[in-house]
Amino acid sequence: MNCRIALINGIIYNQYAVIKQQSLLLDEEHIVGIVPIDQIPEDYEHLDVAGAYICPGMIDLQIYGTGDQLFSAELTQESLYAIEKQLLLQGCTSFYLTLATNTLEVFKKAITIFKQSDPTVALGLHLEGPFLNPLKRGAHPEDLVISASPTLINELLLDANDVVKMITIAPELLDDACLDVLKQYKVLVSAGHSAANFEEASASFNKGIDAVTHLWNAMSVLHHRNTGLPGAVFNHQTVSASIIVDGIHVDYEAVKLSKKLLGDRLFLITDAVASCRKGIYQHVLKKDHYVLPDGTLSGSALTLLKAVENCVNHAGISLDEALRMATLYPSRLIKNPLIGNLNRGSIANVLVFNANFEIKHVFLKGKAIMGSQKE
């Protein structure tokens, strides 16, 4: 296919605009612009999308694997590449590859593998743990949950070379010295697996914790005499929160409430894992989600496009807003203006899907990745 492509006859969703009867121009790795069809340059190849929706490639800041590839169980370049390939076919063109609580040795090996792999879709690693609250550990092994210290954080991140982009911690157990060290490494710090009360959580936000991991799951409850971590994020002005919209991790009525209270501070993740029968995380597919062998809920079987579809069909969220939750809002949180939008000069990561949420085309840096599966 020509490296200069004009996507025509589609409905374009770009940030807060819904654009009809215009075309999206891609020139190699970058977006050229959105123009009327009669203004397409002669050297562009036309791709008729037949009324489908055109949006930025989706961004998942928390995913462990997909299909039969759980990265933490394999820790190989081949596993990382396989995950990237499968996610592209799902319309996800940028993600943080995530590891749950494990030994420091496993984390450091994952960092080394990531550095050696030079991935094209994975932007970095998200470490969910090991500095969590054992009372809210969920599927994380209790014997691997440890207390943070500046020494341990330095041991973990000293040779990471900017590979670790995000870490989930329990804020009530993280002192200021530890938070200062994380800031020095320019890691996005997110509160999760936490029993923090309202005051503890609010104080941590004011000190520089910018996000909350999988809102409602594995955290203090919203109670009328102590609104906990959920109440703290609802009452804050800037902190963002991720949410798993599969109807299992969070009831759709709670999704509706969260959306009303957080607005553009709520974004989508999949928290997706993969079938795995080895290592410390043995995930068993149970119809439409994953559990540990003992039945503990351990991860979703979502794709981001399915999460968008669920927002539209079950949570009363408009399609354009649901798309922003999977594109614009996570790109803002990680401060990357070149993804999550279709603006001139941005990276040409593009998803095309129809009204039945079936993928028709995916472009990664302007290169066509064909997909037609039902999400």
TrEMBL record:
InterPro entries: Amidohydro-rel, GlcNAc_6-P_deAcase, Metal-dep_hydrolase_composite, Metal_Hydrolase. Its EC number is 3.5.1.25. GO terms for biological process: N-acetylglucosamine catabolic process. Zn(2+) binds at E128, H193, H214. Residues 53-368 form the Amidohydrolase-related domain. Its cofactor is a divalent metal cation. Keywords: Carbohydrate metabolism, Hydrolase, Metal-binding. Signal peptide: none annotated. Transmembrane segments: none annotated. The keyword Metal-binding applies. It comes from the Bacteria. The active site is at D271. GO terms for molecular function: metal ion binding; N-acetylglucosamine-6-phosphate deacetylase activity. Substrate binds at A139, N217, A218, R225, H249, L297, S298, G299. Binds 1 divalent metal cation per subunit. Belongs to the metallo-dependent hydrolases superfamily. NagA family. This is N-acetylglucosamine-6-phosphate deacetylase. It comes from Sphingobacterium olei.
